[in-house]
Specification:
alpha/beta; 31 strands; about 475 residues; 6 helices; binds 2-acetamido-2-deoxy-beta-D-glucopyranose; six-stranded mixed β-sheet
Length: about 475
């Protein structure tokens, strides 16, 4: 998961600030200054803050508001930007900001603002970027009066607040929307896909971590420029509608942890997909052979569904794959069907708890970038090959319960791995004797070693105590 930390504000060292001030003052023609009305709107904003993060020192009545911290003006001296992210501000957002008729960008993200988002900002005839993410704003997003003409908003970020209620149905006047980020609130009702009908330039629709429910409603098919659709961790149900598969511009489709059902077959129309995350749903059916046509696919997450069938050999045509996560399904058949040597970028393979049979495919040992390999919870068998030494980045290996034999040999093979930190080899080597001599060493970075349920005999060996990490 991407990090969602608010950036720290960069403080310039004083000499630099001094220089910048001198430059600024010398550039500003002495006659022009912001209007009294603009100044008073900003002071109304300041008055609404119970904690202003030190702004009052700069926002002085007797100075030109275009020189105030966080404020930028257009050449005609109207305020164009109010950029006050990450300043520790508390209090509310004043509706008087709506009086700044030339305001283009408002960024109040990463503060502790509370109260509602004033209608005046959403319905502004000038604002194109509105970012109030990472605050404690409450209430709903305002419906717009029915007579509202087309609005210029392009980027709206209300993510990580405490907003509730249904998404407004009157936002079709936002004809210029490019990005809407409403992640991590408590929005309810249907996904606002209807926005696609009016805003054809949508490229980012980020709605995850809310309480949206019901089927995915029609509309998405009209978002012909959409690159990212993210609505995971909601309460969506029903099948993936054909409308989704019409959005051939999609690069990232992320709908994990919902109640979506049905099969994946339509997915192959999305030829530009880079990441597909449908984990934690109720999906069934198999991975279609045609998945091989998704030539840009890097991330494939289908874990914790009810999918079945064999892995299609065409999976090895997805040569850009970095992650394959299929754990917790009913996939079956031999893994050797897939030629892993065509997947040189693979870093993570998680097949935990499926019904795969047969041997560990030799071609896996050619995926030299592998960092994590989990095969436990299948009916695989066979032995680890010395070639596992090729996997110089392998840090997590789980091969428990695969009928492995000869614990001495297995530990000798794995001991030379410098990258290995987590090793799970339990439920193998039944009734063998644990090696007690110094033929076992290495494991320089091993932190977790699980050898449970092996019914090993012997005494706890000395080499174990040498694994200092
Ligand atoms: C300024 O904004 C307030 C609150 O939205 C509004 O009542 C007032 O009419 C506006 N003043 C002007 C001069 O536009
Ligand atoms: C000032 O310039 C901005 C941006 O160029 C424009 O949107 C606004 O209408 C202008 N305001 C006035 C009062 O001329
Ligand atoms: C708002 O400011 C923050 C901090 O500088 C930045 O990370 C974010 O991208 C800005 N928002 C927009 C929409 O540009
Ligand atoms: C809010 O979301 C917009 C659009 O996705 C993004 O450009 C902006 O950087 C985000 N703001 C923060 C503080 O992450
Ligand atoms: C959700 O928002 C809260 C409050 O802003 C924040 O602490 C948390 O990290 C966010 N969680 C996600 C998954 O974005
Ligand atoms: C939405 O897409 C359908 C076809 O997928 C098209 O018939 C319709 O005209 C589009 N609507 C708008 C408003 O673009
Ligand atoms: C999610 O949907 C199910 C029915 O599909 C319902 O029983 C449940 O209460 C919903 N949960 C939330 C948090 O809305
Ligand atoms: C996979 O690649 C092979 C050989 O390059 C080709 O014959 C086959 O048709 C491809 N399959 C798919 C589904 O793309
Ligand atoms: C797997 O692919 C590699 C490289 O494309 C090829 O050399 C090898 O013969 C293939 N192996 C099998 C078993 O098809
Ligand atoms: C080991 O795998 C078998 C099936 O192959 C299963 O029946 C058994 O419960 C597994 N044992 C453990 C400890 O997971
Ligand atoms: C186990 O492997 C070692 C080599 O590491 C070999 O010397 C030994 O004979 C093997 N034991 C059995 C029972 O095959």
């Amino acid at each position: 998961m991407r990090s969602h930390h608010c950036p720290n504000r960069i403080m310039f060292p004083l000499p630099f600030l001094g220089l910048a001030l001198v430059l600024l003052i010398s550039l500003v023609p002495p006659t022009s200054s912001c209007t009294e009305q603009e100044k008073s709107s900003l002071l109304q904003l300041l008055a609404g803050f119970s904690q202003d993060g030190g702004l009052a020192a700069s926002w002085r009545k007797d100075t030109d508001c275009c020189t105030w911290e966080g404020i930028t003006c257009s050449p005609n001296r109207t305020v164009s930007d109010v950029l006050l992210a990450s300043r520790g501000i508390e209090g509310s957002i004043s509706q008087f900001l709506g009086n700044l008729t030339g305001l283009l960008r408002l960024n109040l993200s990463c503060n502790s603002l509370s109260g509602g988002l004033p209608l005046e900002l959403v319905s502004s005839s000038s604002i194109i970027v509105l970012d109030v993410s990472f605050n404690r704003l409450t209430g709903g997003l305002s419906e717009l009066p029915s007579s509202t003409p087309a609005r210029p908003l392009q980027v709206v970020n209300v993510s990580s607040n405490l907003f509730t209620g249904r998404f407004p149905s009157t936002w079709e006047v936002m004809k210029s929307l490019v990005a809407l980020n409403a992640k991590n609130n408590s929005f309810t009702g249907q996904l606002p896909t209807i926005l696609c009908l009016s805003a054809p330039s949508f490229t980012v629709l980020e709605l995850s971590f809310n309480e949206f429910s019901g089927n995915i409603p029609p509309g998405l098919g009209n978002c012909s420029m959409l690159k990212l659709l993210s609505a995971g961790y909601n309460n969506l149900s029903g099948t993936l509608p054909d409308d989704v598969f019409k959005v051939t511009s999609l690069e990232h489709l992320s709908l994990p942890n919902n109640w979506l059902e049905g099969a994946l077959n339509g997915i192959i129309k999305l030829k530009n997909l880079v990441s597909l995350d449908l984990g934690g749903n109720e999906l069934s059916g198999n991975i279609p052979e045609s998945i091989g046509e998704l030539k840009s696919l890097e991330e494939l997450h289908l874990e914790q569904n009810h999918m079945s069938g064999e892995l299609p050999s065409a999976l090895s045509n997805c040569t850009q794959l970095i992650t394959i996560s299929l754990k917790g399904n009913q996939f079956r058949g031999e893994l050797t069907k897939v030629n892993f040597s065509n997947l040189p970028n693979l870093e993570k393979i998680d097949l935990l708890h499926n019904n795969f049979i047969g041997n560990i495919p030799e071609s896996l040992y050619l995926c030299s970038k592998l960092t994590a390999l989990r095969l436990s919870g299948n009916h695989l068998h066979g032995q680890l090959s010395e070639k596992i030494g090729n996997l110089k980045s392998l840090s997590f290996l789980s091969v428990a319960n695969l009928s492995l034999t000869n614990i001495t040999r297995t530990l000798q093979i794995l001991g030379s791995s410098r990258s290995l930190t987590n090793l799970f080899i339990g439920s193998n080597f039944l009734h063998e004797a644990i090696p007690e001599d110094d033929s076992i060493d290495g494991f320089e970075n091993l932190q977790v070693l699980s050898m449970s349920d092996c019914s090993l005999s012997g005494t706890i060996p000395g080499w174990l105590s040498k694994l200092t990490n």
